[in-house]
Amino acid sequence: MSTKFQRVQAHTAYQLRIELQCIEPLIWRRILVPETLKLSKLDRIVQAAMGWTNSHLHDWRIGSQRYGVPDAEWIGSSAMLDERKFTIGKVLGEQVKTFAYSYDFGDGWDHRITGSPDHRITGSRWRIVYRFKKDATTGQCAWPARTP
Question: Hey, which residues does 110 pair with through a beta bridge?
């Protein structure tokens, strides 16, 4: 009688801290995502974490590159790399510690994301759990303070 053991490969996970810029008090979230996650999927996770509704354009600025969904009708997107083709592990690697995410170019919801690939996760299945009391767009601190 033989016994087969299946080796489970450990994957790197990035712990990311997402901070909404230009707002007081600071609104932030922490998420843990696998290195194999595409930037297009990270967009959805960031939006869920911050309470956004996927109803506006977005882009990433990572290092000297800009990522998003290129559109021939959108001025300035010709130099943009397609986010659907890049994983977090590929664009961040070991060097990039901070990058930017912008959502809703009209209102200018800019985010600073910091993180590192310091978690080793064993197993092949990830469960995504969203547990947030409030989203970043409700309450008295939903909009950056304006001076009259």
Answer: 102
